[in-house]
Amino acid sequence: MGQRNKAFGANFGRVIALLGCTALAGCGMAFSDKSTDPQPSPADPMAGIPRAEQPARCPGEGAALQVLGSGGPIAEAGRAGTSYLLWIDGEAKLLIDAGSGSFLRFAEAGGKVATLDAILLTHLHADHAGDVIDILNTGGFEGRTAPLTLVGPGDAPRFPATSEFIQRLIAKKGGAFAYNGGYGDGTEGKAQIEVRDIPSLGGNGEVTPLDVSNDFSVIAYPVDHGPVPALAYEIEVGDKAVVIAGDQSGRSLVFQMMLEDASPAILFAHHVINGEQGQPRGLHRTPAEIGQLAGAMKPARLVLTHNMERSLSRIEGSLDAIAQSYTGDVSVAADLDCYAL
Ligand SMILES: [Zn+2]
Ligand SMILES: [Zn+2]
Asked: Which pTM does this prediction carry?
């Protein structure tokens, strides 16, 4: 608790200093020059919220995990839907999720499809997969023709398997964007998308190592996200690991057990609901349950993302609930935040 409060206090000053960032809509204007600006500044949505110190850009050397989209399914200024980008030595190597708005953030971050080894989807909610076709298609304009691996969960009632989802988008016959059918079979000068489905089975499927790159390793973990087939991912670069928990409920017992004492550099947890309101509890961890996960996994840093006004408005309660079980550093993500590994 004390450690977290110390980080909170230290970060508070940085939060104020960081408000000129481009990632937060309107912040540049609100804090441009108060001495000549007669308008009262609007309430700052990140005030009092611990945010990790940020470099001007993701590092050009070494590995870093960038949050492209820190938001959720509710349209709110300044936050795209969930998406992350793994950088290694200045190249975008792995895209995890492609929620609504991440197409724009991908470009702002300087990402290129040409350098990607793979795309991973945690699940097929639109705030995690809505922009995947646009990101694939911008690769066509870069001239990428090498096949690209795309991994996501298997099927369940009302949810197609990831391979079927992609087919429904790009199949030459009957696809919603049939004109992009070249991504299905590698014709028309397009990169063929090779899709792999990993069964989630309500969080009880098999833990699956993925062979997608020579530069990093990935393990897919099934998680419970109510009726939605869903995966979490552990990504290891050198001797540093990050875990992206994705959308998951506190019933994700296989995941939590397998990663007990894993001590990754960072755990990204999705702060979708607060502990007080009548939110979709069957789908997501409460802040207390995020704390229990972090307490068991023991990451050096916990990053809360998938933020919305409904969760951030109760952030102090969330941080207190997390601190009951986890006393390491906690920060709250904004779009384009970069975490060096
Ligand atoms: Zn979500
Ligand atoms: Zn979801």
From this structure: 0.86
Q: Is residue 23 part of a domain?
A: no
CATH number of the domain that residue 302 is part of: 3.60.15.10
Distance, CA 171 to ligand 2 centroid (Å)?
Answer: 25
> Taking the alpha carbons of 241, 303, 338, 73 in that order, is the dihedral positive or negative?
positive
Instruction: For 70-97, write each residue's pLDDT tens digit.
Output: 999 999 999 999 999 999 999 999 999 9
Nearest to 220 by CA among 104, 120, 323, 147: 120
Is the pLDDT confidence value at 116 over 50? yes
Cα 303 to ligand 1 centre (Å): 15
Range of the domain at 131: 2-8+49-340
Distance 122 CA to ligand 2 centre (A): 8
Q: Tell me the mean pLDDT in the region 140-146.
A: 91
Q: Determine the distance separating the centroid of ligand 1 and the alpha carbon of 272, expressed in angstroms.
A: 7
Decide if 265 is inside a domain. yes
- Judged by its nearest atom, the ligand closest to the C-alpha of residue 74 is 1
Residue range 228-252, pLDDT digits in tens: 999 999 999 999 999 999 999 999 9
- 96 Cα to the center of ligand 2, angstroms: 14
Tally of domains within the chain: 1
**For residue 21, is it within any domain?**
no
Cβ(337)–Cβ(11) below 8 Å: no
Q: Look at residue 44 in the predicted model and tell me its pLDDT.
A: 58
Question: Is residue 40 one of the residues assigned to a domain?
Answer: no
Task: Quote the CA–CA distance of 81 and 131 in Å, as a whole number.
Answer: 9
Cβ neighbourhood burial of 34 (10 Å; 0-12, 13-18, 19+): exposed
